[in-house]
C-alpha cells in the first residue's frame, strides 16, 4: 500500500497558541511549522503521512475541531 503526504494550511488569529495545540493533537502530525505569508499574516503548515486508502478528510476534520482555527485548506498532497 502506498503512503501519502498531505500538507494543510491552517489559518488562525492566534497562531502561536494554536501551534502548540496542533503539535500535541491526535492523530499526531508528522511535521508542524509556522510560516509568515506576508503583511504580518501567519499560517501553520501541518503535514500528515498516511496510507493511501485512509484519505485525508479525517485529518482536516480534526484540525477544524480546534477552537482557534478559522480555516483549513489542503496545500499539497502527494504519493511517497
How would you summarize this macromolecular structure in one to three sentences?
This protein has 80 residues and is of the alpha+beta class.
Structure keywords:
80 residues, 22% helix, Alpha-Beta Plaits, globular, alpha+beta, 4-stranded antiparallel β-sheet
Strands, helices and their partners?
Elements: E1 3-11, H1 15-24, E2 31-38, E3 41-51, H2 57-64, E4 71-79
Antiparallel strand pairs: 1-3, 1-4, 2-3
How would you portray this structure in words?
There is one protein chain. The chain has 80 residues and is of the alpha+beta class. The chain has one domain (3-79): 2-Layer Sandwich (Alpha-Beta Plaits), CATH 3.30.70. 22% of the residues lie in helices and 46% in strands. It has helices at 15-24, 57-64; strands spanning 3-11, 31-38, 41-51, 71-79. The chain has a 4-stranded antiparallel β-sheet with strand order 2-3-1-4. Strand 2 and strand 3 form a beta hairpin. The longest helix has 10 residues, at 15-24. The protein starts with a strand and ends with a strand.
* Total beta strands: 4
* Biggest sheet overview: 4 strands, antiparallel
H-E string: EHEEHE
Give unreliable regions as ranges.
none
Tally of separate helices:
2
Q: What's the overall geometry?
A: globular
Which strands sit side by side, in order, in the main sheet? Answer: 2-3-1-4
**Could you report the average pLDDT, rounded to the nearest whole number?**
91
Cα-atom radius of gyration: 12 Å
Strand fraction equals over 45%
CATH architecture verdict: 2-Layer Sandwich
Structural class by helix and strand composition: alpha+beta
Number of domains: 1
